[in-house]
Amino acid sequence: LFLLSIMIGSGVSFGAAPPIGGGVALNFPTEHFNPPAPVNIPITGFGHGRRIRIVGVPNQNGRRFTINLNTPSDTAFHFNCRFDERCVVRNNTRNSAWQNEERYGDFPFVHGQIFTLKFVAVGGQIEVYHNGRLFIRFVERDDPLNIRTVQVEGDVHIHSIHIVN
């Protein structure tokens, strides 16, 4: 913490991204603070027991934001928060073609209100928790060990993304 304070005070830049909203973009091996959207963060698979925690705020009057877990050629898990439809769409692609989408469940997101999403790989499915409460389960349709990036884009400000082995 002391070293971090000195480095920030000396104007040393962390990451290649410009700060958002006056914040400082910081990147550590498993945690990324204030990354700009869109952002792609490398990950080496999303096998059983791995977790991703994302803390963010939907932009005021924003329409949509997306969190994707991508393989080199496809999207293994697509989590698309749609304010304009008041739903969260889940899906994947195979050979670049969208598969069967899922839309059931409530819509817990509020413009301008901070959220914590936790994605947990458990026994062939991805559990998604919203503010500590189980929100949805998505049955994996592709090998989660092939996932190579976490992508966040759209109408959202990300405070942090934490990858847990």
Automatic annotation (TrEMBL):
SUPFAM superfamilies: Concanavalin A-like lectins/glucanases (SSF49899)
Keywords: Lectin, Signal
Keyword field contains Metal-binding: no
One Pfam family hit: Gal-bind_lectin
Signal peptide segment: 1-17
InterPro entries reported in the protein's UniProt record: ConA-like_dom_sf, Galectin-like, Galectin_CRD
Gene Ontology terms for molecular function: carbohydrate binding; galactoside binding
Galectin domain segment(s): 38-164
Protein name: Galectin
